[in-house]
Design brief:
Residues 3-87 form the CS domain. This protein is an alpha+beta fold. The protein has eleven helices and eight strands.
Length: 430
């Protein structure tokens, strides 16, 4: 049977109640605390402390701190005022206390179930929002590809129309030249007949020439007229060679008939598959090929202080799966510990690239990535760029007072009101 604790102390103000319960040498991790808006229980076998409060409190704003051999409750009163007593009037009745305890436990279970359902619903809504954002980005990419194809088609049609116009103009020029030639041939044949020479043109060609008009000019004048006109005929164009070069393409289809976006995705997947095949080391176990297992190993190394081993674990996990933003963000934290600020900034940037689209589900990860990149840039004395990352993190988590203080400190360094010696303090920004 548990021993009831009665040597507790309590104090109150208009808005708060402070309760101190001694643990009597029991370890804090063996302490079980349960509380609602009207009931508090602390169970640390063989001792038990429970109280039915005089008035309700705000359970969400109340806190319990375990340490130094005590449990200290800070309760926020729902209705401000002085209680004058901690327990309700019927607290001495054991039967009523047991009923009260069972009722409060049932109420707490119902509230926990409601919170679980609300959290699940909120998670579903966030997933739906993330899916809608992803669909919107894919739709924008599809429209961009369609617009690019449309622009290429329009350009090709424009070039084709231009070529057709050039062909029509060249045909007109050739037709005009052919209309001029029969008149010249007629003059040449007349001159040749008068001088008794053989006709220089074939009979088939001569039949096509219309009968020449009678002219009174002499043969010499006709010859001179013919020579003058012949001198104006342009010379025959010299032969040339046109070289055409084509853009190299992996797929044999023309660009206007290909699906560029799908081809790029296919090539990217093929590259990743080839990379995975290259790192298929027979000496590695199945667990060592699992990026999630490697991530957990890296987390364990980091918490134990072995930062270099954590970097190696994260790097191996990235080789297995380069699409996990947590791997880059955690490796950036490791690089910050060993003061490798350039690589920390690079890994943070890569993590932010993968954390798209920006949705509430990845808000905490994006906030950490911004803070880690901002810290790296400040350590490299790029304070303006670092401040931009801290402001981006504050937009994600505007209630974070630590971020606000660090951002204000960076502003003071930029404005010159704080010396550069304060740069060492930036190591603790993350």
């Amino acid at each position: 049977m548990p021993i009831t604790v009665k040597d507790y102390t309590w104090e109150e103000t208009e808005t708060s109640v402070f309760i101190t319960v001694p643990l009597k040498g029991v370890q804090a991790r063996k302490t079980d605390i349960f509380s609602t808006d009207k009931y508090i229980k602390v169970n640390y076998p063989p001792y038990l402390f429970e109280v039915d409060l005089f008035a309700p409190v705000v359970d969400d704003k109340s806190t319990a701190q375990v340490g130094n051999g005590t449990v200290v409750f800070k309760l926020v009163k729902k209705d401000p005022g002085i209680w004058t007593q901690l327990a309700a009037s019927d607290a001495g009745d054991k039967k009523a206390m047991i009923e009260k305890r069972e009722k409060e436990i049932e109420k707490a279970q119902q509230r926990a179930e409601e919170q679980k359902k609300a959290a699940a619903e909120r998670k579903r809504q966030e997933q739906k929002y993330a899916l809608r954002e992803q669909m919107r980005l894919e739709e924008e990419e599809r429209r961009r590809v369609e617009n690019a194809k449309k622009a290429e088609r329009e350009q090709a049609m424009t070039e084709l129309e231009t070529w057709k116009q050039q062909q029509v103009q060249s045909e007109i020029i050739k037709r005009d030249e052919n209309q001029v030639k029969p008149e010249k041939l007629e003059r040449r044949n007349e001159v040749a007949k008068e001088e008794g020479q053989k006709l220089p043109v074939s009979a088939h060609t001569a039949q096509k020439i219309e009968p020449a008009k009678k002219k009174e000019q002499t043969a010499k004048s006709k010859l001179s007229m013919f020579d003058d006109d012949d001198a104006n005929i342009p010379a025959i164009r010299s032969k040339g060679k046109i070289e055409v070069s084509f853009t190299p393409r992996v797929f044999p289809t023309p660009v206007r008939e290909s699906k560029l976006h799908e081809e790029e995705e296919w090539l990217k997947k093929q590259t990743e598959a080839m990379r995975a095949a290259e790192i298929d080391d027979p000496n590695l176990s199945e667990e060592e090929k699992n990026p999630l297992w490697l991530k957990e190993k890296g987390d364990g190394f980091y918490k134990s202080g072995n930062v270099l081993a954590a970097v190696n674990a994260y790097s191996q996990a990235i080789r297995m799966d380069s699409k996990m933003p947590a791997l880059y963000s955690n490796r950036a934290a490791c690089h910050l510990q060993i003061r490798n600020f350039h690589k920390a900034a690079q890994d943070s940037s890569r993590a932010l690239e993968l954390l798209t689209p920006p949705v509430p589900a990845n808000a905490a990860a994006r906030c950490k990535a911004h803070v880690r990149r901002g810290t790296s840039l400040c350590q490299l004395e790029m304070y303006v760029e670092g401040l931009m990352d801290y402001e981006a993190a504050l937009k994600i988590d505007p209630k974070n007072e630590t971020l606000a203080q660090d951002a204000e400190r960076i502003r003071q360094i930029i404005q010159g009101s704080t010396g550069k010696n304060d740069n060492d303090a930036l190591e603790s920004l993350d």
